[in-house]
């Protein structure tokens, strides 16, 4: 653990089949006005909307609704929510849904009492938030992003063709509480389920593929990768396998609540590229990550060879027969690619709606430099062409 760190995560987690029973005690901590934020249709289909409304009524809350949040939430929706918070003097924003709904709720929380152009200030310029922020709570219905226990808020500005992630200070928008019942995820369509699974896998790899030291975080990350692979295979066979779905959900929450990132520089380049891909194609986040990842890792692996060898051996069981480190590392990446195929995820950008003309525009994404190789836009364009 070579780099100094401070760690605190303020989210209270209620996990399991009876987790919703904890909602009343959480609601008691806030005033009467609640903004209920949710997506298009799923929470009504699975009966969760009625259950939550009954609890809100029993707790004497005045409920204002913001429905229809898009997968890849839009900046216009964030502004609409901010207006509702001001107009109704909202005391708590309750997000019920997947990462998109929770991310939007966090954006609303910061935007409601902000002055000026929130997009420019908080997403493009990443300015500090000094205005009042409204508390957020969440009820998670889809495993993937980790938004239920982190302070990330990824918003798409359609007018500007930009999808930007903001990691707000933890204390501001990380959900005060999150209710995690794996049974809610049974109804997630397979395409979204595998998108979420790969999102988690990518979060783990983005943190893992950095650094040259012997770091406890890497051992924890390997443990989660192994658990996720095992649980995913079971969930593919039986989507209602509670044990599998609960393990996937917890891997997702643990995968991006910062505990695994301590003392790591972390990569996140695949995410930066995917966010730009998403801005142009509106593709499901995890699907985009899965298409980009093998091409990206084949492009950079020589710069972090020791770690890619370790990954091949520890995660995918590649055996050393004296074939050499490069061959071992490449076999690890090939097994990752095979796992992506096993999940049934498309292999090319074309299949998610990217065109050749878009590639240079997508390549215009942020280069972070925390991983093994500092990329420039020419590098990213080569990677994009490889998986086009
Ligand atoms: O709109 P509804 O009807 O709710 O349908 C949603 C949506 O169409 C559906 N769904 C969710 N729960 C369901 C369900 N369908 C049936 N049954 C259920 N129980 O699934 C679809 C996708 O939902 P979404 O919330 O978009 O998925 P996800 O959780 O993958 O969130 C993706 C967004 O999060 C961002 C992504 O970029 C993307 O915008 N990310 C957020 C991060 C963070 N906050 O830290 C980090 C991630 O890396 C990621 O960038
Ligand atoms: Zn992600």
Per CATH, the architecture of the largest domain is Up-down Bundle
**Strand percentage:** 5-15%
- Count of helical segments? 16
- First-to-last CA distance: 39 Å
Biggest sheet strand line-up:
1-8-5-4-2-3
For this structure, the quaternary state is single chain
CATH topology of the largest domain: Dehydroquinate synthase-like, alpha domain
Task: Explain what you see.
The chain is α/β, with parallel strands linked by helices. The protein has two domains: 12-185, 3-Layer(aba) Sandwich (Rossmann fold), CATH 3.40.50; 190-387, Dehydroquinate synthase-like, alpha domain. Helices cover 48% and strands 11% of the residues. The strands form two sheets. The protein has a six-stranded parallel beta sheet with strand order 1-8-5-4-2-3, with helices on both faces. It has a two-stranded antiparallel sheet with strand order 6-7.
Please write out the topology.
Layout: E1 12-15, H1 23-27, E2 33-38, H2 42-45, H3 48-58, E3 62-66, H4 75-87, E4 92-97, H5 99-111, H6 118-124, E5 136-140, E6 152-157, E7 162-167, H7 170-173, E8 177-180, H8 190-208, H9 216-237, H10 242-255, H11 269-281, H12 285-300, H13 305-316, H14 325-342, H15 358-362, H16 377-386
Parallel strand pairs: 1-8, 2-3, 2-4, 4-5, 5-8
Antiparallel strand pairs: 6-7
Helix pairs in contact: 4-5, 8-9, 8-10, 8-12, 9-10, 11-12, 12-14, 12-16, 13-14
Bound molecules: 5,6-dihydroxy-NADP (NZQ) and zinc ion (ZN).
